[in-house]
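About this split. The held-out portion is used to measure sequence recovery: a designer receives only the structure tokens and must propose an amino acid at every position. Recovery is the fraction of positions where the proposal matches the reference. Here is one held-out target exactly as it appears in the evaluation file.
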């Protein structure tokens, strides 16, 4: 099955001319870079598999953040305070140093091919959680930023995932209409204000999501302000409900303090 997925991905990636296929991504661990054999799941070596903080125990029943053992509620501290527009969020790992390094390689070091490995991780999470949806949509990047970076990492993830899931990919349905300040260093309220009206669905695309269950895809989930802003635009255009899945999610900040991500 893995081999089939791989062949399928390579053929479709060639068709889209999207990735640098010369790099043999399955020979090196995607986290530490050590040589591995290509049977390792997600192209992670055994050490890195153990280092990543997987969301395989208690998670927030709303946004999907990992909950500490000592923390009693079923909702994280953010979700206890505030409602979300999306219905349910899921994350695969918590954003600590190892996860940050993988995301940074994927985002800033032109390693778009990592999207396939990360999409496999997302795929397994979806299967475990039995999430049901009709269309996969990435959190869009502003065109200017995308031109500069060369690709939108959320779109690379979403595209691979849609193929694995055999579900339509809606890469042009949600667009970023406002250039926003970088989110790093912003608090929760500033993040919300920064991103509130940043997204829209073009009028000729509304029929594509009317009555549909949307799976929104991004690399990191922090406070949910981006996910909510996207969800609001999608819901206003007739989507039925929104789920969000990200590779990593920020920690549940019990005392309301801590480093903001992105
Ligand atoms: Zn490794
Ligand atoms: Zn939560």
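Reference sequence for scoring:
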């Amino acid at each position: 099955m893995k081999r089939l997925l791989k062949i399928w991905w390579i053929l479709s990636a060639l068709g889209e001319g999207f990735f640098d296929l010369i790099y043999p991504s399955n020979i090196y661990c995607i986290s530490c870079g050590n040589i591995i054999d290509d049977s390792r799941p997600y192209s992670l070596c055994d050490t890195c598999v153990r280092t990543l903080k997987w969301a395989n125990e208690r998670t927030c029943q709303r946004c999907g953040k990992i909950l500490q053992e000592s923390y009693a509620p079923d909702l994280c501290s953010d979700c206890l305070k505030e409602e979300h527009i999306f219905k349910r969020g899921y994350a695969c790992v918590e954003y600590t140093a190892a996860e940050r390094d993988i995301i940074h390689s994927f985002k800033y070091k032109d390693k778009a091919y990592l999207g396939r490995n990360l999409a496999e991780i997302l795929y397994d999470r979806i299967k475990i959680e039995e999430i049901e949806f009709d269309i996969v949509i990435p959190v869009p990047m502003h065109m200017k930023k995308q031109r500069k970076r060369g690709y939108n990492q959320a779109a690379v993830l979403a595209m691979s995932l849609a193929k694995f899931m055999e579900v339509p990919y809606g890469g042009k349905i949600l667009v970023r209409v406002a250039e926003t300040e970088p989110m790093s260093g912003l608090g929760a309220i500033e993040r919300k204000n920064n991103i509130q009206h940043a997204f829209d669905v073009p009028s000729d695309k509304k029929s594509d999501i009317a009555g549909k269950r949307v799976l929104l895809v991004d690399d990191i989930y922090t406070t949910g302000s981006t996910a909510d802003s996207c969800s609001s635009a999608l819901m206003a255009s007739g989507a039925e409900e929104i789920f969000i899945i990200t590779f990593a999610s920020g920690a549940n900040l019990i005392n309301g303090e801590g480093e903001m991500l992105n």
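Annotator remark: DSSP finds ten helices and six strands in the chain.
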